[in-house]
Amino acid sequence: MSDYIEGKRPIIEALRIGVPLRRIFLADNAKRDPLVEDIMRKARRCDVDVKLVARAKLDELSAHGSHQGVIAESKRFGYVGVGDLIDAAQAYAEANDGRALIVLLDHITDAGNLGAIIRSAESAGAVGVVIPNKRSAHVNATTYKTSAGAVAHLAVAQTSNMVQAIKRLQEAGFWIAAASEHASDYLWDVNLKGKIGLVMGNEHDGVSRLVLERCDLAGKLPMMGEVSSLNVAQASTALMYEWLRQNRPASTLRGAEQAGAAKGC
Q1: Could you report how far apart the first and last alpha carbons of the chain are, in Å?
Q2: Looking at the predicted structure, is the pLDDT value of residue 262 above 80?
Q3: Which of 45, 139, 201, 236 could, after both became Cys, cross-link 207 (CB 3.0–4.6 A)?
Q4: CB atoms within 10 A of CB 1
Q5: Which residues contact 193 (CB under 8 A, 6 or more apart)?
Q6: According to CATH, where is 3.40.1280.10 located in the chain?
Q7: Cα(10)–Cα(8) distance, integer angstroms
Q8: Rounded to whole angstroms, how far apart are CA atoms 91 and 74?
Q9: pLDDT over threshold 80, residue 259
Q10: Domain at 4-74: CATH code
Q11: What Pfam families does this protein map onto (predicted)?
């Protein structure tokens, strides 16, 4: 299923950040102002076809009627299968001292949060992300923007059943750790060494009961301030980097020690 991006500036931004577009529909009576000319230039540079259509066609495609005479159709994102992600993680673990991270998102609904989590996952060295194929955010132009392009470099799998996806990971030797404010242990007291599937929950309800019951471990972040919780993208970053800290390569340690010695520490 394709997504549509409406309006001149959003399409210019989509072309700028590299959202894969199938085509751009431009009203045949659209005024060739500087923004339209910019769209035309960027479309040629990105090899995106621009098709002139009747404005009535754009009205049919528009979700909110503010297309400004131009709508872009994005290509369907290339999701991978959960099995493909597991295979990639096994290969990664074999080459990296047995460590691998897969992030599972239990019905995250905001595409911006999804993009921010993907950005952190790619930075922390995760192999990929698993999302539900229904009632969940999916990769779209917003995700590309908030991931700062990281979505183009990280595998994203869709599943129809998160519990079954977790079971497959466990059968492949992964320990599944959930982030839950109801956990008894703090994050840094949870053993995240080796092959880990990290489960993050919905923005409002957290990890669902059925998913939480299937997890092997659970941890929470300490809250020292007046705010009761972090945004899910911020919390995901903290947990992913705790996994990275616990699994940091020896070469990273040696580099830090050498840097400290050079500074006289």
Answers
A1: 56
A2: no
A3: 201
A4: 5
A5: 99, 246, 247
A6: 82-248
A7: 6
A8: 32
A9: no
A10: 3.30.1330.30
A11: SpoU_methylase, SpoU_sub_bind
Strand residue runs (E) in the chain = 4-6, 21-27, 49-53, 70-74, 100-106, 128-132, 155-159, 175-179, 195-201, 217-219
Does the global pTM surpass 0.90? no
What six digits make up the tokens of 227?
């705010």
Q: Is 48 helix (H, G, I), strand (E, B) or coil?
A: coil
Contact 203, 111 (CB under 8 A): no
Residues of the chain with CATH 3.30.1330.30: 4-74
187: tokens are 């994050």
Query: Tokens 């210019």 correspond to what residue?
Result: 12
* Token pair for 43: 């479309």
CA 135 to chain centre: 16
Residue pLDDT, tens place only, 2-37: 688 888 998 998 898 888 899 999 999 888 899 999
pLDDT value at residue 228: 64
Give residue 168's pLDDT: 97
CATH code for residues 82-248: 3.40.1280.10
